[in-house]
TrEMBL record:
UniProt entry tagged with the keyword Protease: yes
Pfam families registered for this protein in UniProt: TAXi_C, TAXi_N
Active site location: 97, 320
A GO MF label: aspartic-type endopeptidase activity
Signal sequence interval, chain numbering: 1-25
Cysteines engaged in disulfide bonds, as pairs: 110-114
Keyword Transmembrane helix included in the entry's annotation: no
Keywords assigned: Aspartyl protease, Disulfide bond, Glycoprotein, Hydrolase, Protease, Signal
Protein name: Eukaryotic aspartyl protease family protein
C-alpha cells in the first residue's frame, strides 16, 4: 500500500511538469475485436482452468490476469486498440485490459533490415528513451527478481521491469517513455510526449504470446494504478474512460470506441451507476459490489457475504475487459447453475470437452427460451444483460451457460468481456463509480 501512495505522488509530479493543458479535449480510439486464431475448445478450457488456478496463487500487487481467448464458438475474444508510438510513429495493436496497469509493447532491438513482423523497434525512433534505474519513475514498476542494485553514477543503467499476470505469463524489458499520438475528438492529431510504457524484450506465457494473443503487439493497461494508460492520460483528459464492446452477434458489427476523458459515451444516454470499491491488496482492479442475483426476477438465496472482499483482500468482483468469460465465486456459481438447470426444459447436452458445466441441446428450438440473469449492485442499480451475454453457442445446436466457478475466499469473481457486450461502461475514477447503459454503444 505504501508503494502505491508513494508512486501516485511521483507520477503526478512528473505529469505536472511534462504535460501541456488540453483538458477540454478527449481521446476517441476505435476498438477492434479480433479472433483470428481461435483455439479449439479443449485448449480454451485448459487456459481458463489454468487461469482459475492462477487466481488461487496471488502474489503481491501485480497478480493481474490477462486475456484468455475462450472457445471459438463464443465468438468473443479480445478488444484491441491501435496506438502510434515513436518518431516517426509506428502503429501497434494493443489489448485493452482493465485488469492490469502496465502498458507494454513487444520490442525488438533490431536496427537495420528488420523483419516486418509487428513489434516496436526503439532504434527506429528518435524519441525513445528508457528510464534510468535511479529515476523516480522506475519505482513505479516491479523489477525482476534477479535485480542488480542501481548504480546511479553509471550512465547506462536502464530501468528493468518484470510484470507478471496471474496465469503465469510474464513480460520483461525496459521501462521507458515515448511520444505517442492519437486522433482526438476534434479530429486533430494529439501528441502525448511522455507515455511511460514497458518495452518488452522477453514475453512468455500463453496470454502474452502465441495464438491466444491474437496478433496483438502488447497490452494497454487501463487499471486503476498510477502507471496505467488511463491514469497517465487522465491528468490531461480527465480520470474517466468509457468503452462499448461490440456486440458480435450484430451484423454488421457497429464500430465502437474507447474514450479517454470526460466526454460521456453515448452522449445524452442515461447511465446507471454503482460504486467502485477499493481493495487495498489489489489496487489495480475495478471492484464492484454484487448484492443479489436474480433469475427471471426471482431472487436467489445467496448470502451477501459470499460476494464480499475479506480482510485479506480475497473475494469481491472485478470488471475486466481482458478476460472473456465470467467467473463467479462458489457457492453462488452452484446456486445459479442449479436454478438455470431447473428452469430450462430443453434436453441437456453432456460433453465435457466443451468446458462448461451446463449445456443444452437447442437444435429443436428456433428461439430457445432462456432464463434472464440479473445482478443487483451496490447502490441499487441492476445489471440485466441479455442471455446472449452468458449463453454461448459452444457447438452446433448446443448452448452452454458461459460461467466458470471460482473457489471461495481464495479467488475473486470476474465480470468478463462477454458479459459486458453491447453495453456502454464508464469508469469514473474521480467519483469512484462505474456507469453502464444498454444504449449508446455506436454513437459516442
Ligand atoms: C558504479 O559505476 C561506477 C562507474 O562505472 C564504478 O566506478 C563504481 O564502482 C560502481 N559502483 C558500484 C557500487 O558498483
Ligand atoms: C487518425 O485518423 C486518420 C484518418 O482517419 C488515420 O489515417 C490515422 O491513422 C489516425 N491516427 C491514429 C493515431 O489513430
Ligand atoms: C440434439 O438433439 C437432436 C434430436 O433432437 C439430435 O439429433 C442431436 O444429435 C442432438 N445434438 C447433440 C449435440 O447432442
Amino acid at each position: 500500500m505504501a508503494f502505491i501512495s508513494i508512486s501516485s505522488c511521483l507520477l503526478i509530479f512528473f505529469l505536472l511538469i511534462t504535460l501541456p493543458d488540453l483538458s477540454s479535449a478527449y481521446l476517441k480510439l476505435p476498438l477492434l475485436r479480433k479472433n483470428p486464431y481461435p483455439p479449439p475448445p479443449s485448449e480454451a478450457i485448459s487456459a481458463d482452468s489454468r487461469r482459475v488456478s492462477a487466481l488461487h496463487q496471488r502474489h503481491g500487487h501485480f497478480h493481474t490476469k490477462l486475456p484468455i481467448t475462450s472457445a471459438a464458438s463464443s465468438g468473443s475474444g479480445q478488444y484491441l486498440v491501435s496506438l502510434h508510438l515513436g518518431t516517426p510513429p509506428q502503429r501497434l495493436l494493443l489489448v485493452a485490459d482493465t485488469g492490469s496497469d502496465l502498458t507494454w509493447v513487444t520490442c525488438s532491438a533490431c536496427r537495420r533490415h528488420c523483419p516486418s513482423r509487428a513489434t516496436f523497434f526503439p532504434r527506429h525512433s528518435t524519441t525513445f528513451s528508457p528510464y534510468h534505474c535511479f529515476d523516480s519513475s522506475c519505482k513505479l514498476v516491479p523489477h525482476p527478481k534477479k535485480h542488480f542494485p542501481c548504480n546511479h553514477t553509471r550512465l547506462h543503467s536502464t530501468c528493468r521491469y518484470e510484470y507478471s499476470y496471474s496465469d503465469g505469463s510474464v513480460t520483461s524489458g525496459f521501462f521507458s517513455h515515448e511520444t505517442t499520438a492519437f486522433n482526438s475528438s476534434s479530429g486533430k492529431l494529439v501528441q502525448f510526449q511522455h507515455l511511460s510504457f514497458g518495452c518488452g524484450f522477453k514475453n512468455s506465457g500463453r496470454s502474452v504470446s502465441g495464438p491466444s494473443f491474437n496478433g496483438a503487439n502488447g497490452v494497454m493497461g487501463l487499471g486503476r494504478g498510477p502507471i496505467s494508460f488511463s491514469s497517465q492520460l487522465g491528468r490531461q483528459f480527465g480520470h474517466t474512460f468509457s468503452y462499448c464492446l461490440m456486440d458480435y452477434t450484430l451484423s454488421p458489427p457497429p464500430t465502437s470506441y474507447l474514450l479517454i476523458g470526460g466526454a460521456q459515451y453515448g452522449g445524452a444516454h442515461k447511465l446507471s451507476y454503482t460504486t467502485l470499491l477499493i481493495n487495498p491488496f489489489s489496487p489495480t482492479f475495478y471492484y464492484i459490489g454484487i448484492e443479489n442475483v436474480f433469475i427471471n426476477n426471482v431472487k436467489l438465496h445467496i448470502s451477501p457475504s459470499v460476494w464480499a472482499i475479506d480482510e485479506l483482500g480475497n473475494g469481491g468482483t472485478v470488471v475486466d475487459s481482458g478476460t472473456t468469460l465470467t467467473f463467479l465465486t462458489e457457492p453462488a456459481y452452484r446456486i445459479i447453475l442449479a436454478m438455470v438447470d431447473r428452469l430450462v426444459k430443453l434436453p441437456k447436452s453432456v460433453d465435457p470437452t466443451l468446458g462448461f458445466d451446463l449445456c443444452f441441446n437447442v437444435s429443436s428450438e428456433l428461439t430457445p427460451n432462456l432464463p434472464r440473469l440479473s445482478f443487483k449492485l451496490r447502490g441499487g442499480s441492476v445489471y440485466a444483460p441479455p442471455p446472449r451475454n452468458y449463453f454461448i453457442d459452444a457447438a452446433d445446436g448446443v448452448k452452454c451457460l458461459a460461467l466458470q466457478p471460482v473457489a471461495p475466499s481464495s479467488g475473486f469473481s470476474v465480470i468478463g468481456n462477454l458479459m459486458q457486450q453491447g453495453y456502454t461502461f464508464e469508469f469514473d475514477k474521480d467519483r469512484k463509480r462505474l456507469g453502464f447503459s444498454r444504449s449508446g454503444c455506436s454513437v459516442p
